[in-house]
Amino acid sequence: MTTPQQHQYTHPALAAADPELAALVGAEERLQAATLRLIPSENYVSAAVLEASGTVLQNKYSEGYPGRRYYEGQQNIDQVETLAVERAKAVFGVDHANVQPYSGSPANLAVYLAFAEPGDTVMGMALPMGGHLTHGWGVSATGKWFRGVQYGVRQDTGLIDFDEVRELALKERPKVIFCGGTALPRTIDFAAFGEIAREAGAVLVADVAHIAGLIAGGAHPSPVPHVDVISTTTHKTLRGPRGAMLMSREEHAKALDKAVFPGLQGGPHNQTTAAIAVALREASLPSFRDYAHAVVANAKALADALLARGFDLVSGGTDNHLILMDLTPKQVPGKIAAKALDRAGIVVNYNTVPYDPRKPFDPSGIRIGTPSLTSRGLATEHMDQVAEWIDRGVAAAGAGDEQALAAVRAEVADLLTAFPAPGLPV
Ligand code: DSN
């Protein structure tokens, strides 16, 4: 049981004012330090990003945009937001950036508000194929308020079939097409999507939330020459705070800005904007390029080590930070494997695989990725060990062997002591 005193050195005011909450923060710090975090959409932000997101910028209202606010006292806030915007433009090579969306789903909703009317046809990748809820999937507002048509991947290859995408786009004539997703292990062919969107007369949106850091670091091709809008969260491979950005050519700047505010949101979260600015500064440094390439090298090495142990990887491997595994051949359902791995100190999420015969809440697969372990400094030479732990964990899940899971947990924690996580107390 954590006592608040153990953590007073990191959050003294919090520990004094609210020991119960401070204890939970301390427990989470220890959990993040001692476990191998493989959820591909998670990461460790730097201490500088953490500090920026916990500043007095929190106290300020600033509806509007720099130089055009509805509240006074913006002498510093305007500069904070301008820094974030200018850094986003420089890192991604775009004309325009809006750093105010609260997160990825509101950012995508703003895109619809800018370019479509309720009832219009919109197109994106189906959620169980690797897309995102907000790409027009039925249970999301985007699938309820718009007519969502969905493409997928081929069953035999696990890859997007561009003949199918073209045929669907030309038949359905969507106003907006989304490319990108949440469980795509392969490079996104933005040029192919661009050609189809132009033929269909659609606005093309690249949702690069998962791969934004890889793009910034030159480890994934940039969508900029091929798409109308780029939507991204800032907290995945980009390693910033939980937030989002919309980027575009100048011609779409007004429509996007108007959609974010006043279309959907009120005051921007200035402490988050500041932390985004810090993360973007970090992303402009040579060390970030090394990190982005290391994320991919680690994922490829991990995929090879898993394949060597008989794991079935969707599309046969990975080009990026993410690996999607179908555990059917191992005869362990994804949820049972994910929960057992959690007990073994390896944090993953259960996930549908394309054409999954099981349900989303009890699917066949698990999804893993290498951003967090790379941020801790683990390298390709460690990936065989990681694959071995996953293999033992999945086997122990099938056999109900809690002792084996505990043994893996101890080994994981032991290795990780040599790789302190950014932003966490040592
Ligand atoms: N929740 C994010 C992910 O894990 O990929 C997508 O929104």
How would you portray this structure in words?
- The structure is a single chain.
- With 426 residues, the protein is an alpha/beta fold.
- The protein folds into two domains: 56-283, 3-Layer(aba) Sandwich (Aspartate Aminotransferase, domain 2), CATH 3.40.640; 290-416, Aspartate Aminotransferase, domain 1.
- The chain has 16 helices and 15 strands.
- The strands form four sheets. The chain has a seven-stranded mixed beta sheet, sandwiched between helices. A four-stranded antiparallel beta sheet has the order 11-12-15-14, with helices on one face. It has a two-stranded parallel sheet with strand order 1-13.
- Strand 2 (64-65) and strand 3 (68-69) form a beta hairpin.
- Helix 5 (104-115) crosses helix 10 (253-264).
- The chain is globular.
- The protein starts with 11 loop residues before the first helix and ends in a 10-residue tail after the last helix.
- Bound molecules: D-serine (DSN).
Q: TL;DR of this structure?
A:
The chain is of the alpha/beta class and 426 residues long.
The overall strand count is 15
Indicate the CATH architecture of the largest domain.
3-Layer(aba) Sandwich
Q: How much beta, percentage-wise?
A: 5-15%
**Unreliable segments (pLDDT under 50, ≥5 consecutive)?**
1-8
Q: So how many helices?
A: 16
- Give the integer mean of the pLDDT values: 96
Please list the strands of the largest sheet in the order they lie side by side. Answer: 4-10-9-8-7-5-6
Radius of gyration, CA atoms, in whole angstroms: 22 Å
CATH topology description of the largest domain: Aspartate Aminotransferase, domain 2
Largest sheet: 7 strands, mixed
CATH superfamily of the largest domain: Type I PLP-dependent aspartate aminotransferase-like (Major domain)
The class by helix and strand makeup works out as: alpha/beta
At the first level of CATH, the class of the largest domain is Alpha Beta
Fraction of residues in H or I helices: 40-55%
Shape estimate: globular
Tally of domains: 2
Q: Between the first and last Cα atoms, what is the distance in angstroms?
A: 19 Å
